[in-house]
Structures are given as C-alpha cells and as structure tokens.
Amino acid sequence: PPPEWDWRSKGAVTKVKDQGMCGSCWAFSVTGNVEGQWFLKRGSLLSLSEQELLDCDKVDKACLGGLPSNAYSAIRTLGGLETEDDYSYHGHLQACSFSADKAKVYINDSVELSQNELKLAAWLAKKGPISVAINAFGMQFYRHGISHPLRPLCSPWLIDHAVLLVGYGNRSATPFWAIKNSWGTDWGEEGYYYLHRGSGACGVNIMASSAVVD
Amino acid sequence: APNEPRAAGAQAWELESPELLEPARFALEMYNRGRAARTRAALRVVRGRVRRAGRGSLYSLKATLVEPPCNDPTVCQLRVSKKTLLCSFEVLDELGKHMLLRQDCGPVDSKITGAGIPRDAGIAQVRLPSGVSPDSSLFQLSPPDDKNETFSSFLPLLNKDPLPQDFSVKMVSIFKDFVTTYNRTYETTEEARWRMSVFANNMVRAQKIQALDRGTARYGVTKFSDLTEEEFRTIYLNPLLKEEPGKRMRLAQSIPDL
Predict the structure, then answer these.
(1) Given Cys at both, which of A38, A165, B152, B203 links A130, Cβ 3.0 to 4.6 Å?
(2) How high is the ipTM of this complex?
(3) Cβ separation A110–B249 shorter than 8 A
C-alpha cells in the first residue's frame, strides 16, 4: 500500500457527527462506510441517515447496540438509505418512517475484510473508508496523539465500539490509523482518534468490513 | 501471536460449573493477590459463559465472593468492608495461559445513590477544603493555575492520607474549569459533590492509562470526565459487538499488488 493515505483530503468523508447519549456507534460506522463507497462509485458525497438504521433495522438494538454486518443487511432489505437531512438524527428509538422513494443511496452487498493490517491499508487506499470495531479502552479520557495501550488492557476479546478508518500514516515514525469517531468534534482531535497501526491494537483488525456498491 | 478472536464467528455458550472452576479459581487468586491467608475472600457461587475462537477462550463470569470478617480496624475502613460481593470477571485462556482482562466487584447490598452508582463503590471521596462547599458560587470560573492536561503535577499528592489541603483546592479548581468548559449543571449540591468525586477518581484513572500507554497519546479531562466507567460504558459503548456473531459476510478479495 502507499506509505500514507487520507480520504478526508479526497472528499470521501462527511463531517464528524455526535451519537449523543445512545450506543448507536454501529450505525455511524456503517453510514460513514456507505458514504465513502457511494462517493467512490457515484462521485457525490451524501451525509446519510443513522436514525433510519436505529428505527428500521429490527435485528439490531438501536441505542443498546448493533452490528455492522446486520446493518448492511438491513439497508439492502429496506432498499437503501435516506440522507441525514431527510431522516434526521434524534439519538433515541422512534417508529420507522423510512420511505423507499426518498432513498438516495443503495448497496449491493457487504464484505468482511482481512485481519492483516497491511492488506487493510491496501484495501482502504484503493476502495475507501472501512468500518471497524475496537476495544474503547482509555477513550473516555483520550485527548490527542497516537494511542497504543498494552495488549491485556485493550484486548481484542473485549470489543465494544464501532468506528471508521479514514486513513493511515506515520507521525514521527509511529504508524497510526486515522479513525473517525461519533462523539462530536469536542472530543479527541476534533472528533478523530489516532490508534497505533500494525500491532492489532485494541482489536482494530478483527471486525473490518465494508458495503459494496456495484 | 495465537489466532485473533474472530468476533463474527464466536458463539457464547452458557457453561456448567465444572468447566468454570479453573477460570474462576484463577480470578479468585487474582482478587486475593497480596492478601494474608486469613484475610482472603472465598468463592461462593459462580456462573458464566465462554466464547471460543481460534486457540483462545474468553470466560465471562459472575461470581459471589464472601469477605472474611474484618478484625483489623486499620484495614477495615479502607477496604470495602461489605461481607458479600458480587463480581464480574473476564478471564482469557489462550493456550492454557490465563489472563484477567476485567474485574468489577461491588457490595451486594450497596445503597444506590444519584446516578445509580453504589455510594461506597470505592470512589475516592475528595474532601473539599474547609468552608468550601460545591454550591453555585464554587463554580465561578477561575481557570486553574496549571492547564496541564494530564495533571501529573498533583498526583503525588494523592498518596498522602488525609489528602493535603492543596490537592483538594487544586481539584476544585480543575473541576470548576471542567464544569464551565462543558457547560455542566447538577441538580443538587449532593450531585455536584458526587460528580466531583467521580471526576477526581477519573483523573487518577486517566493518569494510570497515560502511564501505561506506549504511543504518543495524551489522556486527561474530556467531556466524559464526570461519568463513572460504568455510566460511560452503558451509555456510549456497544457490548453487542463482542457478544453476538452477527451475519456472516463473504471475505473480500485482497487488493492485488498496486
């Protein structure tokens, strides 16, 4: 893969959002990935609706959590995603009010990606931002810099947060993943989290996935 | 390194107790570490489940421990002196090597206060300097003298007991800054006091996380600093990710050499 990559500078990433007091990170991770896939295939960057997934994805559990793999499947079953403007975020479960004729984006499939971080970097550089899930150890107090907790403290067995890989690179010889979080811009580095790359830190390589837009 | 857990394919199985005994015994050993024989807690009941993937197994245990009667007054007041404890443990068994990933114990009959957290859940109670009570006047913003984001300057003070005067004063000042920066409002003085003790405890936690990080990250005050770990985990995180396998997806082709 190229030595570094950042989809933010290529227009494939929408602004940082805020899930509020709701465990809906899974929806933000998936919409961020679909936004990137749609941008790469159709050339337009649309901010997509997480609330639609909270309300209409009946397999997942809205604010109590969910899984990206179920969410991709729900998007296909529903017939696509509406935009954030058309189906705005409220941070709690509501009755589903999705209408297919307002869907602006659809997906054809979803895939699980390699657990090899080098292959993940190559895939990201070629195919776009990646939905991942990590152990959120220490993120409650994270302010900036590249996080690299000791493995037992940030075990890949205790994954509890879904986010979006938007790029990678090195900062003074420390390799990192650039991660878009969904806790607002007043957390971390303007809403972003930087995690050590190449050591399987916090299970970043365990649950990488993406939607497919033909 | 042994195979990574493939969360997507891993199932969690409820276990009969015999298989739980080994991980439970390990967790109890970790819990009692450093204690003299007669002061060790005993395991009364354990139940749990295991998630297997690759060559590892992750045991999620719920155990009831019984603390021995406390007859050393200098110790009793420090440690949670409740007799029966309800603990949750996460024990990882990789290639026969056990590792305690998480331990969370609380008295069974804890009195729940405020934001639903046991009053005596071992939170460091921050003593306010005499004559200062966390009422509205307390929070007139006077930015703390040190803007150092990880407050390493005050930590050595923590080891003294009772906490020295300047620790509390510094803590109040930092907490005021937090309240104003993140526009916090608390309904009662009691809630404000409780939140400040959580805040103080979290600063110690952030300092420990800082000390154990091998990267370039900086940890300190964030907008979540007045939440207990339990509140933060419950509100903002998504434990389903490790518990449920989710739909199987096909594996993407790797990118041919660019």
Answers:
(1) A165
(2) 0.94
(3) yes
